[in-house]
Design a protein that fits this description.
The N and C termini lie far apart (39 Å). The chain is built from 9 helices and 11 strands. By secondary structure, the protein is an alpha/beta fold. The longest helix has 16 residues. Strand 2, helix 1 and strand 3 form a beta-alpha-beta unit. The strands form 2 sheets. Strands 1, 2, 3, 4, 5, 6, 7, 8 and 9 form a 9-stranded mixed sheet that branches.
Length: 270
């Protein structure tokens, strides 16, 4: 059994002690082990999800409960009923609303979601309803959703007007490094009205350039390494998922050393 220590949140839902000289590191995790490792390495906030290979989907309530028992940093829960696009059916919306209610009931400190219209704009009607269901928790607009919008500058103003606290983005490009010019422009446009959080491909090799080049005060990473399975008997013929799924006998988990290295780089920038 893990015992969770109580620590106050800032108005934006972040943890003051998780700041690295003004930078806050959020680590996306999909297991209790990753959550504990991320906190040990110095993460100031966790984004909790399942299926990271699909960009993240809604985690189980059981995972949320145990992560909350084992960590003290804020846990933001992803609300995404499936992988793929962000154009949702009425039934998927009902699932999202139910997941928001359950996440709030079981201790989520914040939520992460996004929804788009068929023409690549923020679905203001749906997002307004989801935001209302989420309050008083802070909400981040999902990275993959924002990176798929038709006009990111206009979309940013829409998110600000709706009351999202954060937007996660790789600059609408294949990785945060390629999208750095747009991230800088978004941060300048935001002028503190919303927190623009770069994420997607951040490593110890590029973090300094990203933070210095974007003007961001927070960043998002996974900092994972491959861990070999403890299984001694291994069937080489059967697979548990699709052809392109991850191997059964290796597990990706947040790496304490990687998280610490990223945290140290952020501390040394200022």
């Amino acid at each position: 059994m893990c015992l969770r220590r109580k620590t106050p949140l800032s108005p934006k839902g972040s943890l003051f002690s998780g700041m690295a000289n003004g930078f806050l590191m959020e680590v996306c995790v999909d297991s209790v082990e990753s959550a504990v490792n991320a906190e040990r390495g110095g993460a100031g906030r966790l984004e909790l999800c399942a299926n990271l290979m699909e960009g993240g989907t809604t985690p189980t309530i059981g995972l949320l409960q145990v992560v909350k028992q084992c960590t003290r940093v804020p846990v933001f829960v992803m609300i995404r009923p499936r992988g793929g696009d962000f154009l949702y059916s009425d039934r998927e919306v009902e699932v999202m609303k139910a997941d928001i209610r359950l996440a709030k009931q079981h201790g989520a400190d914040g939520l992460v979601f996004g929804a788009l219209t068929e023409d690549g704009r923020v679905d203001t009607e749906l997002c307004t309803a989801l935001l209302a269901a989420s309050r008083p928790l802070p909400v981040t607009f999902h990275r993959a959703a924002f990176d798929m919008v038709y006009d990111p500058l206009a979309a940013l103003e829409t998110l600000i007007s709706m009351g999202f606290e954060r937007v996660l983005t790789s600059g609408c490009d294949s990785s945060v490094l390629e999208g750095l010019p747009l991230i800088k422009r978004l941060t300048e446009q935001a002028k503190g009205r919303i927190v623009v959080v770069p994420g997607g491909g951040i490593t110890e090799r590029n973090l300094q350039r990203i933070l210095e080049g974007s003007g961001a005060s927070e960043f998002h990473c996974s900092a994972r390494s491959v861990k070999d399975s403890g299984m001694k008997f291994r069937n080489p013929y059967a697979t548990m998922g699709a052809y392109l799924s991850t191997p059964e006998y290796s597990i990706k988990v947040a790496d304490v050393a990687k998280v610490r290295t990223l945290n140290a780089i952020a501390k040394n920038i200022l």
